[in-house]
Amino acid sequence: MSETKYGKYIKTDVYKTFYQTESLTVGPEQLGVDCIITSQGFNAPVNDVGGKEPHKHDFHQILCFVGGDPNNIRDFGAEIEVCLGEEMEKHIITSNAAITIPPGLPHCPINFIKVDKPVVFLEVMLVGKYDRETIGK
Fold first, then answer.
1. CB atoms within 10 A of CB 13
2. Among 18, 52, 77, 135, which is least packed by CB within 10 angstroms?
3. What are the pLDDT tens digits along the chain (137 aa)?
4. Residue 2: inside a domain, yes or no?
5. Would you give the DSSP letter of residue 83?
């Protein structure tokens, strides 16, 4: 990605073929492991996904943005703004991407600025129980 301070956490053009699944939310009770997975589909702009205020966690989190056409996930018709770090460094996602959020890295809001085609937002949290600390409160 970019040569910015937090650009190293954004990975684009990462593709693998998996079977088709529906959106879901699963956690340790379903998975039998300390991991929480959620997914959401978006077909219109939405602001403040993940909350208006930046926050951080004491666990790793992975945010994925994937084109919503199951016949061509590379067809990504969205523009998503993701803020990272205490400086609220803005990154614009315009293709499939995975962002790793290390423990303690402030992040959010996530703004789906433009959505011309459906997009799937997938979160993977490597923890048994979700908790967060709001920054600036």
1. 9
2. 18
3. 568 999 888 877 654 443 333 456 777 777 778 988 888 888 899 998 888 899 999 999 999 999 999 899 899 999 999 999 999 999 999 999 999 999 999 999 999 999 999 999 999 999 988 888 998 75
4. no
5. E
At 40, list the tokens: 């959401």
Max CA separation in the chain (angstroms): 44
Which sign, positive or negative, has the C-alpha torsion 8, 12, 16, 17? positive
Residue 43: inside a domain: yes
φ, ψ for residue 13 (rounded to 5)?
A: 55, 45
- pTM of the prediction? 0.82
Element (H, E) at 19: none
Residue 39 lies in a domain: yes
CA 100 to chain centre: 8
3-state secondary structure 24-77: CEECHHHHCCCCEEEEEEECCCEEEECCCCCEECCCCEEEEEEECCCCCCCCCC
In the chain, how many domains are there?
Answer: 1
Q: What is the pLDDT of residue 33?
A: 83
36, 122 Cβ separation under 8 angstroms: no
Residue 42 has phi, psi (to 5 degrees) of -125, 135
